[in-house]
């Protein structure tokens, strides 16, 4: 069975010290296309930042007026990636990455 990062994340993501058992990603196709044009990173690739055991999750206080927005900073491949996302229930909605 091939490695599935989303399934791995669903089982092992520690969220502010609390283990979340059922997490899924919600990806907006249009925002994904725009992000790939601007930053040359797909949201599918950006999901891997959440698998970094040393990732940092931080509040995006500059853009959190309507809803809580967060950053995930983690290693992807040979580099670091910053992923901008919201978290509702057990759904991670990525809206930017680079």
Description:
The strands form two sheets. Strands 3-7-6-5-4 form a five-stranded mixed β-sheet. Strands 1-2 form a two-stranded antiparallel sheet. Helix content is 23%, strand content 37%. The mean pLDDT is 82. A hairpin with a 2-residue loop joins β5 (70-76) and β6. The protein has 98 residues and is of the alpha+beta class.
Comma- or semicolon-separated keywords:
98 residues; alpha+beta; five-stranded mixed sheet
What is the helical fraction, as a range of percent? 10-25%
Number of DSSP-assigned strands:
7
- Report the portion of residues in β strands: 35-45%
Q: How does the major sheet shape up? A: 5 strands, mixed
Whole-number mean pLDDT: 82
Element-by-element helix/strand order: HEEEHHEEEE
What would you report as the Rg, rounded to the nearest angstrom? 13 Å
Number of alpha- plus pi-helical segments: 3
Give the overall shape: globular
